[in-house]
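User: tokens in, sequence out, please.
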């Protein structure tokens, strides 16, 4: 091959490389500007309580920087601040019986997060109507997934007395925290955590929150389960467990971990005990294993 042909081949190769780099770069830029943002609705149920709150999450698609443009991080920050303010307001103003639903409407240059329901006022003891809207002055680039659009639920009945059954969890008792805990209604997208307080110390407050971690046992070692989104947060609300009381909340985890595959998992969460007059609460980390 003479020099002229060599130069021609080199130019062709360089052109192909530049074209491929341009295509890949363009794709990365498009993914950077178009992350996957979804709003799903949690469903917390227990006796005299139902709460359905909108949970927003983002999953980056690009390898540029944090994986998505700065504007989306700012959108999520404003969303989380606005909704968390309402979550805290409801928890501080109302007690059981409590029924709250929510919805998110995006359009006409704004995002409206609506909360509707009824609750028992902690001040008057009367049932009051809950009617509150959060209005963001921009349209979120988010997909709103309501219950009929979410993954199909795969459920098996939980029976702690039946050995070898799938979709079951162990029951643990933590004498220091003063609680017995298990999981029920276990499925591939969520489970109900059931906490029963065993002590009668009226001068001590026992609480737990919405935050948790899922771990999976792989080759004998526990590892944090892989999340399907990068940036997320939990509602900063404390659920109180009264003396001798049993409470149950449903934790829906497919928005964070996706639909779980069969295997051995454990849910990691914190229980807090605060004695009257103490400056801070004592934290107890709990681990409850379950099988899918």
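Assistant: Sequence out:
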């Amino acid at each position: 091959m003479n020099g002229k042909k060599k130069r021609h081949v080199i130019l062709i190769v360089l052109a192909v490389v530049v074209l491929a780099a341009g295509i890949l770069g363009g794709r990365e830029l498009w993914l950077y500007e178009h992350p996957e943002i979804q709003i799903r609705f949690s469903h917390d149920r227990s006796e005299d309580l139902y709460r359905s709150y909108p949970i927003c999450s983002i999953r980056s698609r690009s390898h540029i920087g944090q994986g998505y443009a700065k504007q989306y991080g700012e959108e999520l920050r404003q969303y989380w601040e606005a909704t968390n303010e309402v979550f805290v307001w409801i928890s501080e103003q109302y007690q059981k019986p409590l029924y709250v639903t929510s919805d998110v409407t995006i359009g006409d240059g704004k995002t409206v997060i609506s909360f509707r329901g009824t609750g028992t006022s902690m001040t008057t003891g009367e049932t009051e109507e809950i009617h509150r809207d959060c209005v963001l002055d921009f349209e979120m680039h988010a997909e709103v997934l309501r219950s009929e659009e979410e993954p199909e639920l795969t459920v098996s009945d939980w029976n702690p007395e039946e050995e070898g059954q799938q979709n079951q969890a162990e029951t643990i008792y933590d004498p220091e925290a003063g609680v017995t805990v298990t999981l029920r209604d276990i499925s591939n997208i969520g489970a109900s955590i059931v906490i029963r307080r065993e002590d009668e110390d009226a001068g001590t407050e026992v609480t737990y929150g919405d935050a948790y971690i899922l771990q999976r046992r792989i080759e004998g070692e526990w590892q944090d389960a892989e999340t399907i989104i990068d940036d997320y947060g939990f509602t900063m609300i404390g659920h109180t467990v009264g003396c001798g009381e049993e409470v149950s909340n449903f934790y829906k985890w497919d928005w964070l971990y996706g639909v779980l595959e069969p295997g051995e998992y454990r849910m990691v969460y914190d229980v807090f005990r605060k004695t009257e007059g103490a400056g801070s609460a004592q934290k107890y980390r709990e681990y409850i294993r379950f099988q899918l």
